[in-house]
Amino acid sequence: MTTPELDQIVHAIRARRRFVLSSHTRPDGDSIGSQLAMAYALRAMGKEADVVNADPAPSPLMQFPGVAEIRIAPAVEDAYDAAIIMECGDLARTGVAGLDRSFVINIDHHPGNTGYGQVRWFDPTASACGEMVFELVRALGVPLSPEVATHIYLAILTDTGSFHYSNITPRTFDICKTVLEAGVDPVLVARNVYDSNNMGRLKLFGSVLSAMQIDPTGRVAIVYLDHEMARAAGGTYEDTEGLINLPLTVKEILAVVFFKQVEGDEYRVSMRSKGDIDIGAVAKEFGGGGHKNAAGCTVTGAIDALQKIFIEKIETAIGVNDVRPA
Ligand code: 5GP
Ligand code: MN
To answer: Which terminus of the chain is less hemmed in, N or C, by CB atoms within 10 Å?
Structure first.
């Protein structure tokens, strides 16, 4: 499939040599997979590709090729021929300063992308930005090396919540089929991503889940973590990656909201939902964003009041307000 946007990006890449690739703060499997698939493809074309992020990858992802070489920096000093920004609704989401001194190529699948950059390609129907990278690598005529293929699969596996979310299409599986034929080992990828826990992480899951609350309708799970709880369990905030999906494994639970204390009264809010429940719209109301089934924002306030507001908004999104017991 080619589109005018994709053609423009292919031309922009062919005409340039030195690239910097960046993605959002606290990168996830899609940001890391998309960046590294792209970096390996660019290098296969004889180009230079530096990957620079504000935050390190979650530790299970360190086992994938090239992840340990990602540069973690708050700014880039050099001007590159082009900066390829993936997974970011706006340039500030990178947390990396100085990228705007290069020619900016914006590749994203998040609703609400602001359309920054000199060229941009936005496809909200892609289950992962990795799907778009697959199309781009194809359009550039770069063979699918095991590294490129593995990173595309990593992006799709993680951004679909292991094939749970509603943004999966036949194209998703076409791409998975092709990357598997190119040498991806799906068992190894899944084991690296999901079975690389340390004990602190498991204990932290235990303590957060023990303190989980359920709203009066029985449809919304509320989880909470502060620095004191993390310290007591012997885990870190990074260890909470994936925790938010566990309450959704309960049949009756339709949405989850996870409050993580940043410092003082400031909280990172992550939300997940099932099916048509649009918690992306809820995140947007609070200055955040994301997708229908996975979204987040940062808020400040008293935790009890914040929890009450979010529970009400989520109940409204679910449409369960009317069945709330008196
Ligand atoms: P998570 O809960 O894993 O932090 O984020 C879930 C999804 O929501 C991701 O696709 C992420 O990009 C998006 N998201 C999370 N926090 C924010 C935010 O503060 N702003 C925007 N625009 N998107 C966010
Ligand atoms: Mn994504």
So the answer is: C
Q: What is the pLDDT of residues 188-230, one digit of tens each?
A: 999 999 999 889 999 999 999 999 999 999 999 999 999 999 9
pLDDT tens sequence across 300-310: 999 999 999 99
pLDDT at 105: 98
What b/e sequence results for 104-136 when a residue is b if at least 16 CB atoms lie within 10 Å of its CB, and e otherwise?
bbbbbbbbbbeebbebbbbbeebbbbbbbbbbb
| 261-282 pLDDT per residue, tens | 999 999 999 999 999 999 999 9
Who contacts 17 (Cβ-Cβ below 8 Å, separation ≥6)?
A: 47, 48, 81
Helix or strand run (H / E) with residue 267: strand 266-273
Looking from the CA of residue 112, the nearest atom of ligand 1 is 22
Q: How far is the CA of 13 from the centre of ligand 2 (A)?
A: 22
CB 138 within 8 A of CB 38: no
161 pocket-lining for ligand 1 (C-beta < 6 Å): no
Q: Is the CB of 272 under 6 A from ligand 1?
A: no
Cβ of 95 below 6 Å from ligand 1: no
Residue 322 in this model has a pLDDT that exceeds 60: no
